[in-house]
Write a structure and sequence with these properties.
By secondary structure, the protein is an alpha/beta fold. The protein is built from 13 helices and 20 strands. Keywords: 4Fe-4S, Iron, Iron-sulfur, Metal-binding, S-adenosyl-L-methionine, Transferase.
């Protein structure tokens, strides 16, 4: 039986798409490494020029390591670099997001092909297992209607469209029956779920919570304007993870306008303080060094970051993405300055996270995900890591930990 290796770049949505392809494989086995594979499927990311380079470099490298393997390209990079890689003979075939459910047909093809598909497709596959995972990712929507000036994703994933609720709930029922208790809702713009179906993410969450076996629900990322009064009514529900990731991207109103964002700091601060009052840890995205970010804007941004009750941050230095408005903006920020600002920002949030963990006065509800260096590692309800010493194998188990040590980087406990 032929063996397939999947290499997944990028976001949780891509991770879910890889699971969709795995569930559709037919008479193929999953390979553990590129070297033992007959076929290599590269699920690519194209969020920055650097992401494109990473995918291209991987394809070149794996082509040298396993010259007999057929290489196929899918994912967001299929739309931006697929034709170039196909014409150069680096890959046997290219297929877009809308075509991934036809993967078995593609892998059986001896003829090179380029099937980019469309940007209107909605998945119909029900995923029943997540290979090598303790938590289950659930894609609830595809695409994005926002047009942030730095982002190419709407042009490779299409406009926002919601998956069928019946399919989503059926998927969760099957995964819960197979032992999964934590579910992470993912998509290109998760909070837009339901706007095209007369529903909302809050309504979906309520229906998910009624499924037997659902213990905790996390939400990949939300926009500030998507947190409605209907959503806020769910904040104290026991099945809600006590962590929300709310994408701000910046705290300077001038920068937010340059980025063509839909949020502004005053309302963001009010929202974050309200959510934190319910005992939540809060994370955000932040782009450092976007064109136009001068010393004045950066100084203002830092002072405002200190005001926000943040505990986590996904900070990254701006990286040009050809084809976006930001890529042609003047006042580019030198890399060394962006790097220094990134370090300053992450150090602020690191201190905030440490203070938050010290302030928690409730037991930690932990799902153990992996074992490393003699300790079992999991995430608590606040999305903080804890390393647990145990005399038995506790991987995949739920633990309630009352006594633990709060260290600067992570928490430590025993069971």
């Amino acid at each position: 039986m032929k063996r397939v290796f999947f290499k997944t770049f990028g976001c949780r949505t891509n991770q879910f798409d890889t699971q969709v392809m795995m569930s559709r494989l037919g008479k193929y086995e999953i390979a553990d490494s590129e070297e033992e594979a007959d076929v290599i499927v590269v699920n690519s990311c194209t969020v920055t020029n650097g992401a494109d380079s990473g995918v291209r470099g991987y394809i070149n490298q794996v082509g040298r390591k396993n010259k007999d393997a057929k290489i196929f390209l899918t994912g967001c990079g299929a739309h931006t670099k697929g034709e170039e890689l196909f014409k150069s003979g680096k890959v046997q075939g290219v297929f877009g997001h809308s075509e991934k459910e036809k993967i078995t047909k593609f892998l059986q093809s001896d003829t090179p092909f380029y099937e980019i598909g469309d940007l209107e497709h909605i998945d119909s596959t029900v995923v029943e297992q997540f290979v090598g995972k303790s938590r289950a990712f659930i894609k609830i929507q595809e695409g994005c209607d926002f047009r942030c000036s730095y982002c190419i994703i709407p042009f490779v994933r299409g406009n926002a469209r919601s998956l069928d609720e019946t399919l989503i709930l059926e998927q969760i029922k099957r995964l819960a029956a197979n032992g999964f208790g934590e579910f992470i809702l993912t998509g290109t713009n998760v909070g837009s779920y339901g706007k095209d179906r007369g529903s909302s993410i809050a309504k979906l969450l309520k229906r998910m919570s009624l499924i037997r076996g659902v213990r905790r629900i996390r939400i990949g990322s939300l926009e500030p304007i998507q947190i409605t009064d209907e959503f806020k009514e769910l904040l104290d529900e026991p099945w809600m993870a006590k962590h929300l990731h709310i994408a701000l991207q910046h705290t300077s109103d001038k920068m937010l306008k340059l980025m063509n964002r839909r949020n502004e700091f005053a309302s963001d601060l009010k929202l974050f303080e309200e959510i934190a009052s319910h005992g939540y840890a809060i994370g955000t995205d932040f782009i450092v060094g976007h064109p136009g970010e001068g010393e004045e804007e950066w100084s203002e941004a830092c002072e405002r970051i200190k005001l926000l009750p943040l505990t986590h941050i996904h900070a990254f230095s701006y990286s040009k993405r050809d084809g976006t408005p930001s890529s042609t903006m003047k006042e580019q920020v030198p890399g060394n300055i962006a790097k220094a600002r990134h370090k300053e920002l992450t150090s602020i949030i690191k201190a905030k996270n440490y203070a938050f963990r010290q302030s928690v006065d409730k037991p930690l509800e932990v799902l153990i995900e992996s074992e490393k260096d003699g300790a079992y590692v999991g995430l608590d309800q606040y999305f903080n890591k804890i390393a647990v010493k145990s005399s038995r194998d506790i991987k995949g188990e739920w633990l309630t930990i009352e006594n633990y040590e709060v260290a600067e980087e992570i928490n430590f406990g025993s069971f």
